[in-house]
Design goal:
This protein is of the alpha/beta class. It is 31% helix and 25% strand.
């Protein structure tokens, strides 16, 4: 186990088609859909930066070039709006571009989240790393400005336990078929030593209603486990199956993070996030 290394890199698996948002995603990556006026992708990168990470690795696919363009200059546009108040709208993304490094790698075949993460080994090497699924948009708890978003909370736990960490949330039992589900032993309030994990079980087969949401801190040994992981649910290589093995042989910790998550991979969650950001961020800053 590689210990006492800090987390400097975050992987963003972004190769998926986003079919639930067709036709919008026919020629545009789902991660570029905006919540009010900011793409999901930027929220995810900002969350990683808030957690002290500055190297961003994207596992992309065909049709996803708009993501790479987004984290680069657009001289023509910048020239057009230079000196006008419109230029201010680029301040946040310019700051993100200045503070981060952006690495893009193509996943030629989409064989599951586990396969996407394994593809990222070339970017990560042998160090611990974060994974953020941009579809799951996390916000800090309202009225508690001192509490950071989910990833910073996971990194704090990683620094304490030096093992793989996943974020979890209690979901309605009827929805277990959409998530990786964990069971575990509570070791601190809201923190569990994972004993089992199952990817997308039917409600009657789910051991609990504690669902993994798209935030992980992984140690580099995960790549060795992933290489051994056979395709599982939906014929895909599942990160959940690899982590189940890590939980058996080493340790995985699950944490009920503070804050709120919006499932922006679904239309109702996307609309809920839009309303939330319009109320709490956009209107508040006008
Ligand atoms: C993936 C993971 C699943 C996790 C979910 C969180 O599923 O496989 O374990 O609960 O992300 O959003 P997906 O939503 O990509 O089908």
């Amino acid at each position: 186990m590689t210990s006492k290394q800090t987390v400097n890199k975050c992987l963003f698996p972004v190769a998926g088609y986003g079919t639930r948002f067709l036709p919008a995603t026919k020629s545009m990556p789902k991660e570029m859909l905006p919540i009010v006026n900011k793409p999901l992708m930027q929220y995810a990168v900002e969350e990683a930066m808030e957690a002290g990470i500055n190297k961003m690795g994207f596992i992309t696919g065909r049709g996803k070039r708009a993501i790479a363009d987004y984290f680069d200059n657009n001289y023509e546009l910048e020239h057009e709006i230079a000196g006008s108040s419109k230029a201010e709208h680029l301040n946040d993304i310019n700051r993100v571009m200045d503070d981060g490094q952006f690495i893009f790698m193509r996943q030629r075949e989409m064989l599951g989240l586990g396969h996407a993460i394994l593809t990222g080994e070339a970017i990560i090497g042998r160090e611990p790393f974060a994974v953020i699924l941009a579809d799951d948009l996390c916000v800090a708890p309202l009225q508690q400005t001192e509490v950071p978003r989910a990833m910073a909370q996971l990194i704090e736990l990683y620094n304490k336990y030096q093992c793989c960490i996943v974020a979890i949330e209690e979901i309605p039992k009827a929805d277990t078929g959409s998530y990786g589900i964990i069971s575990g032993k509570e070791i601190e309030p809201g923190i569990y030593d994972v004993t089992d994990m199952i990817e997308k079980p039917k409600p009657e087969d789910a051991p609990t209603n504690m669902a993994i949401i798209g935030r992980y801190v992984l140690t580099p040994e995960i790549f060795d486990y992933l290489r051994e992981t056979k395709p599982g649910t939906n014929g895909e290589v599942q990160i959940t199956d690899a982590l189940k093995q890590v939980a058996k042989e080493e340790r995985v910790i699950a944490v009920k993070f503070a804050g709120q998550r919006f499932d922006c991979g679904s239309i109702p969650g996307f609309v809920e996030a839009t309303n939330y950001f319009y109320e709490h961020e956009f209107k508040a800053n006008q």
